[in-house]
């Protein structure tokens, strides 16, 4: 009955998926060698990451397995969209992501005073935002790209982690001294939240605004004993949102193109209409990898990659992605649930929720379930910062699971030694 | 522990969010995707046509009406219509800019063989062909008969509902290159060439609708009523004069029908009242959309809210709140000719694969049974009399007995519409025709009846 | 066969493989939950075998802890063993531990290489105390009963 849980089956299926996928792409694209390089590179990376987890006894194995499956689907689709531009560079990003995973694991695992550094997170976030506002480039209407020495990245992705660490300081209960002897940290976190959100509004990064706000409300739900503060926040946001709708053209356009994308199909409704056309053309099983017409979908490599997967792998393929996320998030919830250290628990909850919210907002957006706000689909979309930061988040999650496992064992050993004596 | 409990709540919320996404995705695929996949803005459906040659369309005798040819220069299939304008309102057009209409829209899947399963491993290269019920000779003859006047002609086989000819004028060239360059011109022309008058134009049917009133009178045992026609019907604020302000004096119902006495029919309508008129009209298909017909149609209608007897009097002579399509009048005429059985009209008789295998066949279906055979026979007698000695004598053909009814319908601003509906041969009907000349100014008997006669004669002599 | 047909068929295969993956993960998670459940419900909490010796743990891929059930827990190499360890010196059913009349008991099941408790060979049923060291071949476990 206590058979060892056998991780071989899903790991082999993952490899099988890779081998089938890349060989098929290879033959379907007139024996383009580069596809084999991408496939080989990806499999190599996945084997190395998985082997390191086992050799170094890093505990939890589900997280990386599921994330790798999502990455595989993403890379297959990206190779099909444009092998040189996205397929090959994505491998580099995944390698960096893997490095970020282990770096985040090691750093988070070995430092135990994360819960005392709230000013660092807040300050770091603000500096990143200010840098973006001053030196940033505008891409797709949002001024949220920063380039340093030819290397471009999205600081708002990094601020997500900083924001979670910042929130966790307060919610874990390790920060209870009033600021300047009079301001309750509860209000400092609220102010910090709205500061971050304010910066994001200035950058017109509506997607991240929504993600951070929902995250904040959910964290309040989990930790605040009295609901009034959470309700007050929701009410305030509703008022601000309505005012924004009334006076800000950008928000109006988004709502209108959600309610009726067909009214202005060649202009504001274009993106969502093309996305829906793609999903509708896929049917249940899709046109087959490489057979769809994903070239009509705008931003197909990042925000709209889900529509491309739906067109080529069908609604069942799309559902599979959602289910994979559900499993990933379920595992994260379980780690959070079992965590004893309050700071670990708060960080774990924050990371879990942010993954869930991002995935819901972007998939809901491209399928017209909710208004569209552009963010990337973690692990699947092409996007340097997104991939690296998502893997780093997973690394922190892994560190939390290992720390808790370790704590439990030491506790048990101390007890048993006491018994034995 | 309290926090763990709330974490479970959040887990449930997240699960609900994700499962609702999945449900929505499945719902979307089940109910919305069909519509979106064929949306004219969806560029994908044009891609299919690069690989698949759209099927041909033929008339009932095999005359080619539409085909796709490969343009060597651009490497794409171009849609060609050998008779250009003649079928613009039946076959419609297929344009990557303006979408698809009529048969090209309704039969898009078949023309591209989208549901086809390739029996060999060769992918399907050519779509299915359509075989129509239309007779090209009759269609082009009818088109010439209109001789450039705005109007429409519909010819049906009363026994089967097959559409034999269907002409609307003005028309346009549906070839996509012409359509795209002329689009603004076509749309801005005042006579609206895009309107398929025969199936979508709504007109007051005028005296041709007395066919329905006569059937109602027969059913209500009023066929022996006699009228003292003063030439002017006045009741409750309405005043209706006979055509040409003629007073016919003392007449019975058959005579009143033959000379098309407005006085007599307004009296009948007024006596029977709105409920009777509305009920029998609906039996003939008024106010009922013609569902899954091969092309789009407008629904002939009576605005049935708060009708009074004066309204009924106007409806009885085909005016007032009644509007019909020429197709609807042809169907009513067919129903009378076919002893009270209205057949469902159709245009496409067969869909065949490029190897000649029939994929779909359409056979005659009964649509409604508006009246009993006895009633139909009575009205048939009235209609024969119209052509023999009444207002429709110009529809006579030597050696063939024709039955019909003339109409001259008034409209508020412009000149009268001239109508004629009829069928022949009277004792064994083969063809039923409805002709309307829009704002012609002359009477149905002088302007429309000769056209109907020629069309009938052409069909029966071929 | 045309390329498009092969790719259509293969795209079904991809989807099937992804779903197989999902189901295998769900199965593992389910087993994981079932195990913690079992531990909670049937095994008295805090009664387990602790694997000892880092080298042997790595060599035989041992769990750090094996929770014990009230009904007999068989240690062995065979398929029916509750605690299954792939050590060729182990017998198919080597020994068993169970709970009866308020005491935890161990007996050897006629193994080839014998079972030792605190370095004494077990030839008949023995009672276990917390902290006892159970040795089978080159494996060592500590019996913990909190």
Short overview:
The complex is a heterotrimer of chains A (421), B (462) and C (146). Chain A is mostly helical.
Proportion of helical residues of chain B: 25-40%
Quickly count the helices of chain B.
Answer: 14
* Biggest sheet: strand arrangement of chain C: 2-1-11-10-7-8
Distance between the termini of chain B: 93 Å
How would you sum up the major sheet of chain B? 6 strands, mixed
Which stretches of chain C are low in confidence, meaning pLDDT under 50 for 5 or more residues running?
none
Largest sheet of chain C: 6 strands, antiparallel
Radius of gyration of chain C using CA atoms only: 21 Å
Number of helices of chain C: 2
The coarse overall form of chain B would be globular
| Mean pLDDT metric of chain C | 80
The pLDDT mean of chain B sits at: 89
Distance between the termini of chain C: 68 Å
> Approximately what portion of the residues of chain B adopt beta-strand conformation?
15-25%
- Number of strand elements of chain C: 11
Oligomer: heterotrimer
Strand order of the largest sheet of chain B: 3-2-1-6-16-17
Can you offer a commentary on this structure?
With about 425 residues, chain A is mainly alpha-helical. Chain A has two domains: about 270 residues, no CATH class; about 120 residues. Helix content of chain A is about 70%, strand content about 5%. Chain A is built from 14 helices and three strands. The longest helix of chain A is centred in the last third of the chain and has 37 residues. Chain B has 14 helices and 21 strands. Chain C contains two helices and eleven strands. Chain C has about 150 residues and is an alpha+beta fold. In chain C, the strands form two sheets. In chain C, strands 2-1-11-10-7-8 form a six-stranded antiparallel sheet. In chain C, strands 4-3-5-6-9 form a five-stranded mixed sheet, with no helix packed on it. In chain C, a hairpin with a 2-residue loop joins β5 and β6. Chains in contact: A-B, A-C, B-C.
């Amino acid at each position: 009955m206590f058979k060892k849980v056998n991780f071989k089956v899903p790991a082999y299926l993952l490899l099988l998926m890779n081998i089938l996928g890349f060989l098929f792409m290879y033959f379907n694209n007139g024996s383009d060698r580069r596809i084999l390089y991408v496939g080989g590179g990806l499999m190599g990376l996945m084997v190395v990451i998985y082997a390191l987890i086992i050799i170094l006894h890093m505990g939890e194995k589900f997280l990386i397995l599921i994330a790798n499956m999502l990455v595989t689907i993403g890379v297959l689709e990206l190779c099909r969209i444009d092998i040189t531009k996205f397929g090959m560079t994505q491998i580099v990003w995944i390698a960096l992501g893997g490095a970020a995973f282990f770096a985040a694991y090691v750093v988070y695992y070995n430092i135990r005073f994360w819960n005392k550094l709230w000013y660092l997170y807040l300050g770091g976030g603000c500096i990143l935002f200010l840098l973006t506002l001053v030196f940033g480039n505008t891409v797709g209407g949002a001024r949220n790209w920063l380039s340093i020495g030819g290397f471009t990245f999205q600081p708002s992705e990094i601020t997500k982690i900083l924001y979670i660490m910042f929130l966790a300081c307060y919610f874990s209960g390790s920060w209870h001294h009033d600021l300047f002897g009079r301001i309750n940290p509860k209000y400092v976190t609220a102010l910090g939240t709205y500061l971050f959100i304010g910066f994001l509004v200035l950058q017109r990064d509506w997607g991240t605004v929504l993600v951070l706000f929902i995250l904040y409300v959910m964290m309040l739900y989990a930790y605040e004993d009295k609901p009034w503060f959470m309700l007050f926040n929701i009410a305030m946001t509703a008022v601000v949102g309505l005012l924004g709708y009334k006076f800000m053209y950008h928000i109006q356009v988004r709502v209108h193109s959600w309610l009726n994308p067909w009214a202005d199909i060649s202009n504001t409704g274009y993106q969502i209409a093309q996305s829906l056309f793609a999903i509708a053309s896929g049917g249940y099983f899709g046109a087959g990898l490489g057979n769809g017409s994903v070239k009509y979908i705008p931003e197909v490599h990042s925000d709209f990659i889900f529509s491309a997967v739906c067109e080529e792998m069908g609604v069942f393929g799309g559902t599979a992605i959602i289910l994979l996320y559900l499993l990933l998030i379920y595992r994260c919830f379980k780690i959070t649930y079992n965590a004893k250290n309050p700071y670990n628990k708060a960080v774990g909850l924050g990371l879990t929720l942010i993954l869930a919210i991002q995935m819901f907002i972007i998939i809901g957006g491209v399928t017209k379930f909710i208004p569209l706000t552009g963010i990337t689909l973690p692990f699947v979309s092409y996007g340097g910062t997104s991939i690296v930061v998502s893997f780093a988040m997973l690394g922190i999650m892994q560190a939390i699971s290992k720390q808790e496992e370790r704590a439990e064992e030491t506790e048990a050993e101390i007890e048993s030694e006491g018994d034995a004596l | 522990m309290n926090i763990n409990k709330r974490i479970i709540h959040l887990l449930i919320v997240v699960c609900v969010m994700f499962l609702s996404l999945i449900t929505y995705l499945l719902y979307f695929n089940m109910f919305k995707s069909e519509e979106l996949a064929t949306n004219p803005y969806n560029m994908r459906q044009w891609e299919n046509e690069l690989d698949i040659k759209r099927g041909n369309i033929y008339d009932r005798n095999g005359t080619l009406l539409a085909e796709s040819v490969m343009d060597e220069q651009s490497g794409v299939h171009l849609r060609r219509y050998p008779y250009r304008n003649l079928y613009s309102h039946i076959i419609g057009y297929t344009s990557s800019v303006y979408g698809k209409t009529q048969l090209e829209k309704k039969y898009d899947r078949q023309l591209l063989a989208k549901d086809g399963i390739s029996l060999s491993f060769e992918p399907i290269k050519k779509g299915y062909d359509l075989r129509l019920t239309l007779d090209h000779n009759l269609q082009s003859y009818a088109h010439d008969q209109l001789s450039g006047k705005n109007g429409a002609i519909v010819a049906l086989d009363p026994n089967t509902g097959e559409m034999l000819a269907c002409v609307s004028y003005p028309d346009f060239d549906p070839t996509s290159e012409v359509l795209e360059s002329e689009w603004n011109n076509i749309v801005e022309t005042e006579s609206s060439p895009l309107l398929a008058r025969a199936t979508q134009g709504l007109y007051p049917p005028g005296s041709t609708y007395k066919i329905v009133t006569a059937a109602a009178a027969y059913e209500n045992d009023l066929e022996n009523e006699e009228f003292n026609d003063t030439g002017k019907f006045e009741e409750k604020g309405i005043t209706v004069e006979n055509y040409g302000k003629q007073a016919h004096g003392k007449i019975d119902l058959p005579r009143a029908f033959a000379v098309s006495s407005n006085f007599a029919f307004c009296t009948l309508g007024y006596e029977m009242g709105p409920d009777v008129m509305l009920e029998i009209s609906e039996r003939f298909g008024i106010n009922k959309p013609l569902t899954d017909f091969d092309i789009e149609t407008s629904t002939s209608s009576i605005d049935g809210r708060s009708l009074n007897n004066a309204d009924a009097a106007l409806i009885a002579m085909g005016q007032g709140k009644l509007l019909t399509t020429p197709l609807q009048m042809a169907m009513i005429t067919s129903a009378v000719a076919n002893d009270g059985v209205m057949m469902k009209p159709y245009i496409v008789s067969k869909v065949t694969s490029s190897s000649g295998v029939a994929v779909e066949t359409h056979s005659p279906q009964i649509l409604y049974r508006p009246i009993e055979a006895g009633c139909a026979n009575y009205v048939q007698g009235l209609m024969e009399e119209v052509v023999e000695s009444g207002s429709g004598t110009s529809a006579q053909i030597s050696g063939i007995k024709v039955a019909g009814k003339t109409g001259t319908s008034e409209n508020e601003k412009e000149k009268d519409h001239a109508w004629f509906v009829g069928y022949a041969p009277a004792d064994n009907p083969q063809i039923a025709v409805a002709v309307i000349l829009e704002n012609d100014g002359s009477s149905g008997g002088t302007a429309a009846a000769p056209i109907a006669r020629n069309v009938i004669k052409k069909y029966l002599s071929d | 066969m045309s390329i498009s047909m092969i790719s259509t068929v293969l795209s079904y295969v991809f989807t099937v493989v992804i779903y197989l993956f999902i189901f295998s993960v769900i199965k593992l998670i389910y087993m994981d939950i079932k195990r913690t459940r079992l531990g909670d419900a049937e095994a008295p909490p805090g009664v387990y075998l602790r694997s000892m010796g880092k080298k042997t743990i790595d060599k035989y891929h041992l769990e750090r802890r094996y929770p014990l059930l009230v009904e007999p827990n068989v240690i062995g190499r065979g398929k029916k063993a509750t605690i299954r360890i792939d050590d060729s010196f182990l017998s198919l059913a080597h020994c068993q531990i169970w709970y009866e009349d308020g005491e935890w008991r161990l007996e050897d099941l006629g193994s080839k290489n014998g079972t030792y408790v605190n370095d004494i060979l077990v030839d008949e049923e023995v009672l276990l105390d917390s902290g006892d060291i159970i040795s089978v071949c080159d494996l060592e476990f500590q019996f913990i009963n909190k």
